[in-house]
Amino acid sequence: MDHGFPAVVSPPEIYGSEVLTWVLVGLLLYWVAVLSLRNGGYLPDYIGTQGPILTFHTKRGRALLDRLAQPKRFWRAWSNLGVGIAIVVMVSMFVFLIRAAMVTLSSPQVSSSAVRQPRNVLVIPGVNDFLPLAATPGIVFGLLVGLVVHEGGHGLLCRVEDIDIDSMGVAMLAILPVGAFVEPDQESSKAASRGGQTRMFAAGVTNNFAITILAFALLFGPVAGSIAIAPGAAVGGVADSSPAADAGIEPNDRITAINGTAVESNGDLANRLEATNGEQVRVELNGEETVPVDRALLVTAATDDGPTGLSAGDKVRAVDGQSVATERGFTDAVGDNERVTLTIEPENSGERTEREVTIGAAVSIVDDEPLESQTGPTDETFVITHFDGERVHDYGSLAGLLEDTEPGQEVTVEGYFGDERGTYTVTLDEHPRTDSGFLGIQPQPGTSGISMSDIGVQLYPAGEYLGLLGGDSETRFGPVADTFLGKIGVALLLPVIGVSGVLPFNFAGFTGGIQNFYEVQGALGAFGDGGIFLLANLLFWTGWINVQLGFFNCIPAFPLDGGHILRTSTEAIVSRLPINATRGMVRVVTTTIGVTMLVSFLMLLFGPQLLAG
User: Fold this and answer.
1) Within the chain, what is the greatest distance between any pair of CA atoms?
2) Whole-angstrom Cα distance, residue 568 to residue 611?
3) pLDDT 10s digits, 359-385
4) How far apart are CA 345 and CA 333, in angstroms?
5) Domain containing residue 429: CATH number
6) Which of 37, 204, 424, 479 has a CA 20 to 30 Å removed from the CA of 229?
7) Which residues does residue 430 pair with via DSSP β-bridges, in sequence order?
8) CB-based contacts of 182, cutoff 8 Å, min separation 6
9) CB-based burial of residue 467 (10 Å sphere; 0-12 exposed, 13-18 middle, 19+ buried)?
10) Which tens digit of pLDDT belongs to each residue from 201-228?
């Protein structure tokens, strides 16, 4: 019963613009306090200010760095590896930002998704829409580890390359660590070779990537292996005014039985509901309490201006006069009929209306593709009722039939544009991603562009997420998630993956109540549920933050490490050219690339809003 809900009953947390406003007010007051202390001379010498940011300087630790730097050949080899990785990442980041900016400018309506909202660039829980406040401890820990190993790498390579260090320290915005730094002595830094300088600048990102690999290796291995899925169907969301909401079912509950029959998993819930007759069922929650739920067929998601005219929150009471309260009852009542009369109870209305609709798979027809060559260009929704002679009730059944086709196969497609029925013979093309045939359509959800549920819960894919993190569970990502690097790539997307529609929820660690969907097993079970979930959260965010720091610092623009590596690399290349190389030539190259990166980044963030304005 996995459906996309337009609105769910959620725990009372404040996100987005409201939190951002209070954060900005707090920062302003904090900045005023910092300025007052600085102007009054109350700050000690080891504390500096850069706007609202306090920098804490120290000379302690240099002796430790000297001892750690003794195997210089090892550290130089390690950093040379990092230089190669950094250059590859730098080129990739340059190409990625430019292409992303071009896509944003060419398709601003597509690019203005929530992921690209300026506040969602900030890794601040509660302000960023995808990072709940419950993730704060893991994010802060990961950030601290990232800053320490990054700047520690710079400091260590300074001593390896005999570059003196004036001071080291951290930068704080109130109580939040926002940076760390190592201040090399300018004279000894200039005296170092270009290779030595390049290795020093690359050391930080090298360490970040190494920590990423270590954290995810531990998470994907013993830690995820000690976590299992708890029995029951995981409730991730509850639709407003739904039977489940009326019965008091809440997000993070587990449905463990229906009418006394155990529910073992998410998939099992649909089977139990379909096997149960009657308009009321008894639902056991968390293996503890049982509540009665009066079933009603609720529209949980609907395409805007869809072919049925229904909206989320509407209830389907009857099909051709036959009362229905379940998805199975709806399908049985429709049968082979292509057009039926639905009795609808609109949201928050006791009145009922009737509407004649087409039942099938609602799709948009893609230009210049096989189906469009037969129907002609159109922006109207097409509801497919038969595919190659098989009755189609929803897009899921159509997708299953399409998977069994081959490129070049000739098929018959029957359906409706509005009230007009058409039959088309189509030769399928090659699918761009699979071996099956390609019809050339964009799907709309569920049945005729609507998704329905007879109790109104949206299930959280607990097993899917655990499988993606290395646990013993199946995933839909196939070979991509079977490799270590593939798992890292998917893990980086988990905090925003719900936006793509591939999975219904974002994943921000084992926080916010979803621990109820899991249980601890194996040898690490001695640490208890709280200890294992805490460790998993710390490892997830440490890996996530460190790879972000590594990629960000590889952007070839000053004052980032990528900008310094670009400068030293450009100097090395220009010095070998048969021309009279000057510092100005190097500056032109680095400035041009840096400005291009900055403009691309700003267009990525603000381009949609500027074009829309």
Assistant:
1) 89
2) 38
3) 999 999 998 899 999 999 998 999 999
4) 18
5) 2.30.42.10
6) 479
7) 437
8) 151, 154, 155, 158, 165, 168
9) buried
10) 889 899 999 999 999 999 999 999 899 9
Neighbours of 231 (CB within 10 A): 15
Report yes or no on 33 lying in a domain.
Answer: yes
Identify whether the C-beta of residue 378 lies closer than 8 Å to the C-beta of residue 417. Answer: yes
Please give the C-alpha separations between residue 419 and each of 281, 344, 415, in angstroms, as whole numbers. Answer: 38, 19, 10
Last residue of a domain, one of 418, 434, 450: 434
Query: Residue 69: is its pLDDT beyond 50?
Result: yes
- DSSP track, 459-503: E--HHHHHHHTTSSS--SSGGGGGSHHHHHHHHHHGGGHHHHTSS
Judge contact between 79 and 156, C-beta under 8 A: no
Helical residues (DSSP H) of 301-376, grouped into ranges? 327-334, 370-375
- Residue of 496, 466, 506, 511 lying closest to 137 (CA atoms): 511
Torsion of CA 461, 462, 467, 468, to 10 degrees: 70
Residue spans of beta strands (DSSP E) within 35-105: 47-50, 53-58
Structural domain of 382: 359-434
Give the count of alpha carbons within 13 A of 311, CB side only: 9
Task: Identify whether 462 is part of a domain.
Answer: no
Of 407, 434, 461, the residue that ends a domain is 434
d(CA 283, CA 259): 6
Q: Beta strands 289-294 and 410-417: pairing type? A: unpaired
Which has the closest alpha carbon to 554: 84, 42, 48? 84
Phi and psi at 234, nearest 5°, equal -85, 120
CB 126 within 8 A of CB 133: yes
The overall average pLDDT reported for the chain is 82
Please indicate, yes or no, if residue 519 is contained in any of the structural domains. Answer: no
| Residues contacting 465, CB < 8 A, separation 6+ | 494, 503, 507
Query: Around 162, how many Cα atoms within 13 Å sit in the side-chain half-sphere?
Result: 3
- pTM score: 0.75
Task: Look at residue 256 and tell me if it is in a domain.
Answer: no
Between CA 120 and CA 114 the distance in angstroms is 7
- Is the confidence at residue 602, as pLDDT, over 50? yes
Rounded-to-integer distance, Cα 545 and Cα 62, Å: 27
Is 161 strand, coil or helix?
coil
Count the domains in the chain: 2
Average pLDDT of the residues in 391-411: 92
Q: What is the pLDDT of residues 132-180, one digit of tens each?
A: 777 788 888 888 898 888 888 888 888 888 888 877 777 776 666 666 6
Query: How many helices and strands, by DSSP H and E, does the chain display?
Result: 19, 26
Which H or E element spans position 437? Answer: strand 437-438
In the chain, the amino acid numbered 277 is: N
At residue 610, what are phi and psi to the nearest 5 degrees?
Answer: -65, -45
- Write down how long the chain is: 613
Q: For residue 220, what is the DSSP state?
A: I
